[in-house]
Amino acid sequence: MTLTPQSLADTYRQIAEERMQDMPFLNTALQVEAVGFRAWEEHQVGVLITPWFMNLVLIPGPEEEWRDFSSDKARAWEFPSGSCEFHASRPDGKALHMCASLFTTVEDFPDQQTARDVAEQVMDDLFTPSADGHSKINEREPSADAMLARPVSRRGLLRQLMLQGD
């Protein structure tokens, strides 16, 4: 079976329904969604939103041999924004994909649209060249409207996006 953004989201929807319902850290305002996936070097890359995390995900292309990757292995890929480290994941025991954590908790997201907006910004940042070679995914700056010169944390970016929506 070839993994697609839709089948990945379906796998996590099943996990949400079967294993996550009673978890105290679940944000019930969010649902599983694959956002912004696009082709990149024979792979697909995008953001996976779930009610318990948000990850940048790399789905292997058809020629890629990733059988040797286990959940304790990591690999860095170079994007226009810089290097980003991914860890192997097999949530269903079969479909291997690579994940880079964006938010280990999504409890501060007020709704699905805010989560989607952040995911879309992550994808824009990922493909925006960085002058210093450091990925904007790990330390992003807020929008130009904010005119802040210093990098902000992921939580700070989320707060900034939420404030812009008010």
Polypeptide structure, described:
The structure is a single chain. This protein is an alpha+beta fold and about 170 residues long. The protein has a single domain (about 5-165), classed as Yope Regulator, Chain: A. The chain is built from three helices and six strands; from the N terminus they run αββββββαα. A six-stranded antiparallel sheet has the order 1-2-3-6-5-4, with helices on both faces. The chain is globular, with a radius of gyration of 16 Å. The protein starts with a helix and ends with a helix.
Summarize the structure.
This protein is α+β, with helices and mostly antiparallel strands and 166 residues long. It has helices at 5-19, 112-126, 154-165, and strands at residues 33-40, 43-49, 54-59, 74-79, 82-89, 97-103. It has a six-stranded antiparallel sheet with strand order 1-2-3-6-5-4, with helices on both faces.
